[in-house]
Every structure is written in structure tokens, then in C-alpha cells.
Amino acid sequence: MQIFDTTLRDGAQREGLTYSVADKLAVARLLDQFGVGFIEGGWPGAVPKDTEFFRRAQTELELKNAVLVAFGSTRKAGVTAAADPQIQGLLDAQTPAVCLVAKSDIRHVERALRTTGEENLEMVRDSVTYLKGKGRRVFVDCEHFFDGFRHDPQYSRSVVLTALEAGAERVVLCDTNGGMLPSMVTRAIGELGVDPALLGMHAQNDTACAVANTIAAVEAGVRHVQGTANGYGERPGNADIFAVVANLQLKLGMTVLPDGCLELMARVAHAIAEIANIAPDTHQAYVGSAAFAHKAGLHASAIKVDPALYNHVDPAVVGNGMTILVTEMAGRASIELKSRELGVDLAGQPVILSAVTQKVKDMEALGWSFEAADASFELLVRSALGEQLTPFTLESYRVLVEHREDGAVVSEATVKLRVRGERVIATAEGNGPVNALDEALRQALTRHFPQLSGLELADYKVRILAGSHGTGAVTRVLVETVDQSGRDWTTVGVHENVVEASWRALVDALSYGLSKADARV
Amino acid sequence: MQIFDTTLRDGAQREGLTYSVADKLAVARLLDQFGVGFIEGGWPGAVPKDTEFFRRAQTELELKNAVLVAFGSTRKAGVTAAADPQIQGLLDAQTPAVCLVAKSDIRHVERALRTTGEENLEMVRDSVTYLKGKGRRVFVDCEHFFDGFRHDPQYSRSVVLTALEAGAERVVLCDTNGGMLPSMVTRAIGELGVDPALLGMHAQNDTACAVANTIAAVEAGVRHVQGTANGYGERPGNADIFAVVANLQLKLGMTVLPDGCLELMARVAHAIAEIANIAPDTHQAYVGSAAFAHKAGLHASAIKVDPALYNHVDPAVVGNGMTILVTEMAGRASIELKSRELGVDLAGQPVILSAVTQKVKDMEALGWSFEAADASFELLVRSALGEQLTPFTLESYRVLVEHREDGAVVSEATVKLRVRGERVIATAEGNGPVNALDEALRQALTRHFPQLSGLELADYKVRILAGSHGTGAVTRVLVETVDQSGRDWTTVGVHENVVEASWRALVDALSYGLSKADARV
């Protein structure tokens, strides 16, 4: 079974979603950890950011499980594939595999593409043959397949057959408008009369059946499924790859992920949501924090005695927990596990483990989230173990932003600190209040900690929580920092004031970086 | 086909959701308008608020389409139905129909209920017979039916048959733990061997298949479906009754609602979300505001010519609309379409259309995005048409954030403006820099524009773009504003400085609000 993820291509069509190239690399790494077989990274040539992604992927993305796929379209009408710059863009992406979208509804061929059915078949044949000849594995997405097949089965079938004859590894039947029900998918695959093991399924969620349609296709013999993390995608989204994979593995008994991967699911789902800057859906099947939550009441004691009677699967197998309601990491077990992952063993220290668990719970209730901020979590654990990690004490800071009469916008920050017994005052400008604060802080610390010059702020994310009172709500800031060796870490700060929240994340970022630099000395 | 809504009973199990009695009455009225056949209002006797709801419903709830249903359980073991106070509570609710939950998994009978299989059957028989004798229509929910049927088909079947023999109008097969897939539902109903027209289906969404499972049951002959508004419910929720109804009516061609009701769907869905105090899911199938949104660009011209090729149903039939998102790949066609959607026709003004298209492209290259900020886009178009929309000119502003020695964090802003020829200076504090700026701006404008007091900041979102230079990157701010009539709009601001970006979004927010308030005068 091929698990083909298109979070970074079709999933990026979701309204309001924008990934930076660094975001795309981070999402690809998470998907690879999760064990998908294919990662469709974008459309090189057509979208400049995607071109850049594939360029950087060549040196920065080491995939353990997944094959990287470049997406593109069949060649234009009236030119050869070899002469089509868009097809060249696919080759330039240097991926082992490409996925070509082909029109398979004659109405779209004639009205949107404005060419003939015969030329469209030629475009499919020529493009697949050419890319195969260049050593690529080729997948073909048959756009609008189901609608087209209903309208003119003969033509849609000829597109599928042409792609297979030309050497496509799988031809993917796309419910592009998302209007199908499972029974319609089953019927169409049966009527198509092509060996379903050569087919794939791509479902959109417009009838709220994307996951079910994908499962129905597999039950009809299809052996390639496309989906996106958390179902992100245009309109009501795509098939949620997490629910698809869990259903295949846990309900149909198919082994579709490498050993040990399924239990990473909840963590990967939440981390991708953080990167996409979309609040995780607490009610999402399998991975939502409330997916296995039970309102107490009637069955509370029965649930305690016999949880298997009340959960459709054991939450642990998908990395979730039964009682996590508000927090993502509420339990001692996960705190212990997470600490061990970061190199701090709390197994023999039950008192500290309890204290850390309680502190995490308290902070999460205030809006903190350590899901995507391992470095802040590690600082919290190590400080519970008695380590002194912040290399200074703060007296005060002040940040000023002015929009002047001449239109210039200037930011200036002053920090007053005690560093190794000495009082230090430093003032710096920046292109925003947080940048000014960062500069001033570095300036104040740099004489004592010259290593700081090697640390660079790589990303900065802001989320407003409980958004019913506008800017009065709590602000959560994530800061990603990178050192000269390319190692990066993320820290978190929360406060009703965005500047203070940023300050907290910045202080953690530098403290963590210095503690690691010291450790290396 | 019976459309049985349980928003107010099973749907209210959703984590964090609480309805007042007035809320429940309002939701019931909306569901009745929408045309469902049955409204399950709660559990009288067991839940005090539900007792009160049924009491008030007798005088305050006039239903046009729906039958009100009281939910309860079969009688306790070892007493007669007539002597069971919980059963009396059901009669006291004075509803034409009752729905009884019965255990149908022998393991739950023995381990949770702690009685025998035989006594459980007696409880079903006695309770149904008694309530029928009191003139009630009786439905029976077979809890944990599918898990029970897999474990011990004989026993689960005997519960179904006992309920039917005792006079239940429909016996509802419940996937209480939500672990089923459509094929499993189809198979179980076939193997059960009971006339499916006497059966109902109740699905939970734990495999992300609740809607599909419900449809599968109908395709297997079931003629009663349960669901909740927007899929609200415990864990990943229940079958979304809106998607179920739309699929039945638009995909399977069944008439399940009275004439004219389906087009109320989007409005009813959003109104119930408002009452439940849950942000409407913009990506919800059929009713989400993005359910028919298309990222324009490539296909915009084709969509304009032939929208039916790109929508699985006509959005108008479910009371929704097609939205064109203005994005990175925007062309003239989508700008024109979008303008028309906002009430500005650029069709006859090619020069202005070109200028706006170019301006949007240039701004998007700088990080602006109008796809979630219709109000800023409208201001841009109207200003290209020569309208003067910002009600002041800025001289300068200044924002100060201090973290003081005592730990207090304070924000203060001063703005200097020209308003209708007069120079105005105003200073205000806030709980963050943007809030302070918003307060100072309102203070400066309020004497000339008292309407401003009716505008409230409803949400504030921040996104850092091109995240390779940390806080030096460009910041995009989205501000959502709401006026006293509940009308809301979103504006955008972009700048490398988060405060200036916020300022721009705030100025647009107030300018747009004032222009609309003026238009109403």
C-alpha cells in the first residue's frame, strides 16, 4: 500500500495557510518520521517558493522512509514535453518521483483546457513517457475523474489507460470537487474495469466522506491513497491522512507504516498544526486531545474498570491518551517519556517528576504549550532539577515604537540586567519591537558570553489564544533559534502582552543556546 | 425517512459545551425551521436543566415540523417500569415521543449494568410496553450495538427483536464508541436479518466516518437517521446532521426535508454555532464559509464561465455562496469576480481593473494577503475608484512597553492626528502595544465619530512571513471587527514592524466600519 502525502502541495491550498520554505522542510521531516511512503512537496517552476523548497531539499532533507515527489501538470497542448518549461521545472527539482495532474473529464478538457480529447491523451502519453525516460517514477492524478466518468465513462477510461500504457506507476482517481459518497466510489472503480491495484484514490471532503471514500477505494482493491495532515486542503479539505492510516492499520488490519510509527501520530499531527499556525482540532478523530475524552457522569466508574469497552481503539497505539482533556502532555508518563527523549532521566525521581507534571499542567492552563517547544520544556525540567540556566537577572526593560512625522517607523529597546554581579544597561534599535529587544539583550550579554554572536533567530510565530477579546487575549510566541552548526531549537513565551511573551521566549532561546554551548566546551 | 436530531441531548455531551434553557429553546426553534422530524431535547428527571426545558417547551415551543422527544433509559433492574421514577420523569415531560437507551452488548449488560441478559431484555420489553400504553411513540437506541453484535450477535439481535415486539416504532443501531467503517455497518445490518425499514442509525465520528456510516445504513434500507448540528458531540462528535441531510437529499435524491428548508441550512448551522458559543468551522462540508471557496488564479476564468464544473452542488441550494479567494496567483478575472461579490462592478472599467490587479500583485509580493481580508480589499478597490475612505491623516504615533522593576508590564500609546482639519493628540494605556494603540486611536477619533464606540475588535491574528530572518521578517496582521448588529469584517496590515502592521489593519478596520455606518445614515 502506498501512503502518498500531499500536505505540502494540495493541502497548502487551504484558505489562509502559508508555509515558508523552512516550514515546508520541517513538515516534510515530520511526515517522514511518521513513515509515509511519498511526500509531494509542491509545484516547482510554477510556484517560486516550491522551486526553492526542492532546491534546498537536495541538501537539507534526508528522508528515512519517504520518497520526495514533485507535482506538475501534463505538458501544454501543441508543444512536446521536452520543450515545455513546466516539465523541465519538474526535472530540475531532482526528485526520484513526479506526480502529473491530467484532465480526465472531457468537459474540463474542452472548456477549461480548450483543447481536444485526442490532444489531451497525447499530452498524457508524451509527458509520462518523457519523464519515465528521464528515470523518474511517474504518478498521474486524474483530475475530476469521478465527475468525468459519470458524464463520459469512455473518455475518462481512455485517460486512465493511456497513462498506464505510457508507464505511470499508479493512476490516481481524484474526486476533485469532493461530491462522491463511498458507494459511488465503489461502483465507479468496479465499472472502470482496470486492475485496481494499479489505481490510487484522492478524495476531498465536500460531502464529509473523504476518509470513508478513501477506505472504500482500498476495499475495492486500490493500493495507493492520497491525503493531507489533519485533512488540510481547499474548501472542506482533503482526506485526513492520519484517520486514513489509522483506519487502514487498526480497522482493516493492513500494515501501512513502518514499525513504531503509528504511535507518533498524535505528536506529528499537533506539530504540523503548530507549523501551519492552525489551532489543532481538539475533536479530530484519533489525534484530537478530546478524541478519547469521556465526560464523566454515567459511566465514569465503568470506564475506569474496563476502558476497552468505551474506546474503539487503545488511544496509546496512536500516541494519544484517554483522559487528556485540556492539556497535551498531562500525564506523568508522557512527561517522563519526553524528558528521557531530551536526555534527562526522571525515572528515579518521583518527587521532581510530580512537580514538573504539576507545573506543566498549571502553565498549560494559562496558555503555554510545550508541544512545539522542546527547548523551553527541557529548561523547565532542568531547572526543576536545580540547574541555574538563565545567565542574568532582569531589572527592567523598555521598548519604544515610533511612527514619525516623516513616515519612518523606528523601534528602540533598553534593557537593564545583572550579569555575573555586574549591572549592565544596553540600548539598541531594531526593525520591530522584538528585534530591538533581542538586539539590546544580546548587546548587554555579549561581553560575558561572546558565544551569543553565533546564535541567530530563525523564526518567530505568534498565536492569539481565546480570541474573544481581541488584543486583550493571551498571546503565545514561539521562537526558533539556530546556531552555527545548523542545530535549531524552539522556545515558547506566553503573556497578555506580545512584547513580554516574546521576551520570555527570547530569554529561553538564549539561555538554552548558552547552556548547550557551555556543554560543548 | 425520519430525520432525528439529538443536538440538545447527545450533542450536548461535547467537551466544554453548556446550553442554558433559553439556549435550548432557541436551538429547538432553529432545528424546527430547518425541518427535522424529531428533536430530542434532553433527559428529563436525570438532568434538572432538561426537566426545566421540557416544562417550558410545553408553553414556549411551538413546533411546525418537528416532534419533541424526551430521552431516557430503560427501567432499572428489579423494579417495574411503572414504579421507576426515571420512567415517570419521561412521562412528566409530556412529549409525544420518547427515546429509550437500551444496552445491547452483553458485556455492558453484565459489567456496567451488572444484571443478566434476560433481565435486560425484560427491562426493554416492560419499559417500551408501559410507555406505549401511556400513548407515547417509542424509539429505542441500542447502545454499543455494533461492538455487541460483533461479540455476541445472538444477544444483540434479541434486544432489537424484543424492542420491536414490544412496540418500538424504530430500533436505532448505535455505534456508541464510533469505531465502525461504512462496510462494517452495511455488513452488520445485512447479517442482523431484521427489516431495515424498522431500524435507525446513530453514528459517532471516531473513525472520521460518521456521516458515511449513516449514509451506508440508509443505503442498506434504514429509514431513521440520528445526528447533531455541526456534528457536535462527545469525543470527535456525532454525525453532522447537515451533511447527512444534504447528502440524502442532493446525492441520493431523497426528499427528507419540507420544501424550502434545505436553503436555510447554512444560516441555521451558523446560528446554532453562535448559541453554542463555538466558532463556526469555516471548512465544514456544505455550510462552512470556505466550503465553496476557490483559490482563484489558474482556473478563475474557467470558474467564471462554468461554475458547475467546479462545485459539487450549487452552493445556493444549501444557503451558502461561492467565494473567490484573492491569492498569490490572482488574475484580472478573479479580481473582477471578487469585486462584484463585494458590490463593486469593475466590468466596464478596464483601466481601473488593471490598476487594482497590478496593485494587488505588488502588495502580495510584499506579503499582503487579501484572501481572508475582504474589507481591506474592498477599501483598496473603492480607493482606486477615487473614494476618500480614511477619516483622518496621521502625523505620528508612539508606543511604549515597559517591564518595570516591580515586574509590572505596562503599555502606553500616543497618537497625533488631523481629523476634519483639527489637530488631535490622544494617549491611552492598554494590556499590550496594539491594544494601547487601538484605544488611543479611538480616543482621538471619538468626538468626530461617535459611531466608533459601537465597533469592537473581535479577533487579532499575527503571522510572520518569510521566516528566515526572525523578527526582521515581514509581519502580517489580520484584525476582525464586529459592529453592534453582529456584522463582522476582516482587515489586513503588513510591515516589518508588528506595531505598524497592526496600525494599518486597525486603520482599515475603523475606516471600513465608518464607511458602512455612514452608508446606513
Could you give the topology of this structure?
The structure is a homodimer of 521-residue chains.
Chain A: E1 2-5, H1 21-34, E2 38-42, H2 48-60, E3 67-73, H3 85-92, E4 97-103, H4 106-111, H5 117-133, E5 137-143, H6 145-151, H7 153-165, E6 170-175, H8 182-192, E7 199-203, H9 210-219, E8 224-227, H10 241-251, H11 265-276, H12 300-305, H13 332-341, H14 350-365, H15 374-384, E9 393-403, E10 409-419, E11 422-430, H16 433-445, E12 456-465, E13 474-482, E14 488-495, H17 498-520
Parallel strand pairs in A: 1-2, 1-8, 2-3, 3-4, 4-5, 5-6, 6-7, 7-8
Antiparallel strand pairs in A: 9-10, 10-11, 12-13, 13-14
Largest interface: chains, residues each: A-B, 117 and 114 residues
Shape of chain A: globular
Unreliable spans of chain A are: 323-330, 467-472
Could you tell me the mean pLDDT of chain A? 89
What is the CATH topology classification name of the domain at 3-258 in chain A? TIM Barrel
Helix content of chain A: 25-40%
CATH level 1 name of the domain at 3-258 in chain A: Alpha Beta
Helix count of chain A, per DSSP?
17
Structural class of chain A: alpha/beta
How many extended strands of chain A?
14
CATH superfamily caption of the domain at 3-258 in chain A: Aldolase class I
What is the rounded Rg of chain A? 26 Å
> What does the largest sheet of chain A look like?
8 strands, parallel, barrel
What fraction of residues of chain A sit in β-strands? 15-25%
Distance between the termini of chain A: 48 Å
Oligomer: homodimer
Strand neighbour order, sheet with most strands of chain A: 1-2-3-4-5-6-7-8
For the record, the CATH architecture of the domain at 3-258 in chain A stands as Alpha-Beta Barrel
Domain Pyruvate carboxyltransferase (chains A, B): 1-263
Organism (chains A, B): Rhizocola hellebori
Pathway (chains A, B): Amino-acid biosynthesis; L-isoleucine biosynthesis; 2-oxobutanoate from pyruvate: step 1/3
Enzyme class (chains A, B): transferase
